[in-house]
Amino acid sequence: MHAPDTALTPEPADTAPRRTRRLLRAVVITVLLALFSTELVLGWPSLAAALSQLRAPRLNWFAVALVAEVAAMGSYARMQRRLLRSAGVDVPIQRHVALAYAAHSLSVTLPGGPAFSTHFNYQQMRRFGATPAIASWCIALSGILSAAALAVVTAVSAIASDGSLQWHSLLTLGLAVLLLTIGIRRITRHPEKVEPATRAALARVNKLRRLPETQGLDRIRGFVEQLRSARLRPRHAVAAAVFAVLNWLLDAGCLWLCFHAISDTRISNAQLLLAYCAGMAAGTLTIIPGGLGIIDSALVLGLVTGGVATSTAIATVVLYRIISFGFIIGVGWITWLVIRRHNRREPAVPADTADADGAQEDRGPLGTGAGTPAGR
Question: Are 73 and 104 in contact (CB under 8 A)?
Answer without folding.
Answer: yes
